[in-house]
Amino acid sequence: MKTTFRKTMIWLHTYLGIISGWLLFVIFVTGTLSYFTPEITYWMMPERQVIVGDGFDRNIVVDEASYTQTNTQTKTKVAQESQRFQIEQSLNYLQHHAKNASSWRIYLPTAREQHWYVQWREGKTRHTVSFNKDATLLGSTTDTKGGLFFRNFHYTLQLRGYGGRYIAGIAAMAMLLTLFSGIYTHRRFFKDFFTLRKGKISKWTSDLHALVGIVTLPFCLMICISAIMIYAIMYTPFSANMHFEQGERGVNKAIIPSLPPLTNSTSTAANSVKSSAAGASEYMLSKSIAYSAILTSLKAQWQEPHAIKRITVEAPGNENSRFIIERTKSLTVSNRADRLVYSSYTATPLEGYEDESAPATFRRIMYGLHQANFATTGLRWLLFGLGVLSCVLIASGLIIWVNQRRTNLSKGQKRIPLSLHIMEKGNIASIMGMAIATPVFLLANRLIPADTLNRANMEISAFFVAWLYCLVHVIFRPAKNAWFEQTLVAVVSFISLAVVGICMPFERIKGAVGTADITYLSFFLGFVLCGAVFFSTSVLAKSSFVRLLFKWRNV
């Protein structure tokens, strides 16, 4: 009975992995890249500069003798003062250019997301203005989706509105079943963990698959379970439609706390003072005093550097205006940070958001675990590494199935079964397709002229066109040749990306070297490392072309 059950688990593990393997590989690759979404966007928009560092801002002059590595209080004070400067400059701009707006939003930069900008809406038109580190307006910006492309593709598959999130959810459920059946298949954990046979590539690949599966098991379980919990309401809509008039939206309105609506007020704070020029200046002064009191109050409650992420001012011209301040998510596992509400003109604390229910809090914690906004730099790199290993786990499983079927073919059998042929070609198109389409997407960001219309969509089109070419190429080439040739294209793509990134624009790389912009410079090291990894892969694959090259050297 045990043997029969184990064979059933092996069958389930094998064919669930085969059916969902290509899709899971694409989802895990884009999800792994999403851990560095702000950094990728920063690289793809070279006009951005470093605005804030790790606790130190160039806009504030501090006595260097007192600013030491151990003086954390000074670092915190500098960060708070820099945010105060950014908030004051933002409010000053909005007061002069968005008087008729129904609301203002101020997005402050962080060490990861070097983007300081304000937004306001007048009617149906949304306005966005970005600032440089010295509070000057940022000129033209690069039209690009940046790292958000990988993040959105991760859970929508570029099928937003066409069931992309349902497909990703089904893939996550299939991954969970594959993991559980894999646990029983490789039940000898310690033996599998310390086994890595040399010699034949098929045995080495099988041992690597088992080893990586053991290492990444907790990570994959967390990712799959949290992914399902994020859209649990969407995946089970029947109860929502039965008990709520608006279905899923009705559930969200019921469980997500919101602020009480603003009371209707047509009188403005300016009218309550005076309509003269002197009155207007007094009105501006009273606002400045109120905002100053709010920021002073925040210092006592949120003492970490760069504590404020976003500020929303509702009905900025009215007496009942609200000042909503949202904290950064770096200190919470949940995907919703703390928020405080004040009166914009009196600085008195107002009724804030109610506490969420336990199920809603659990869902937000799952959401936060999946996104890992709380992760420090070291932890983020660890998660990124586990994501890469998960991609290796999926890819090696797909390759193992093909190798085993090829080995089991009878010696006299000349015709390859159609299923094996499709799997072999599909593995190359999915694995190497992502390896080539990703650097092509980044290359398009540098090569497409900045004034091109619909530029962001052209970058995305370059990604899918490159992927399509990989599929067409593998259809007309033998599998071994296709593996090597596409691996070589990936090597050339990543090396070209490093060269083009240095040359275009050259002023940006000079500025990054001069300011020791580690985030920007680290991309070039990453491109070179990726090129080296794929070059090593092409050699390890022992393709016919490589063997021919070594024979030529021995002649």
Descriptive terms for the model:
alpha+beta, 6-stranded antiparallel sheet, 20 helices, 62% helix, globular, disordered C terminus
In brief:
With 555 residues, the chain is an alpha+beta fold. The protein is 62% helix and 7% strand.
Give the integer mean of the pLDDT values.
Answer: 81
Task: Give the helix tally.
Answer: 20
Low-confidence stretches: 54-70, 269-285, 543-555
What is the global morphology? globular
Give the ordered list of helices and strands: HHHEEEHHHHHHHHHEEEHHHHHHHH
End-to-end distance: 59 Å
**Oligomer, anyone?**
single chain
Explain what this protein looks like in three dimensions:
This protein has 555 residues and is of the alpha+beta class. It has helices at residues 2-33, 37-44, 72-97, 148-156, 164-185, 189-193, 201-230, 232-235, 237-243, 248-255, 269-273, 277-301, 358-371, 377-408, 418-447, 455-475, 479-503, 506-514, 518-540, 544-554, and strands spanning 103-107, 116-122, 125-131, 308-314, 322-327, 339-343. Strand 1 and strand 2 (116-122) form a beta hairpin. The protein is globular. Residues 54-70, 269-285 and 543-555 have low confidence and may be disordered.
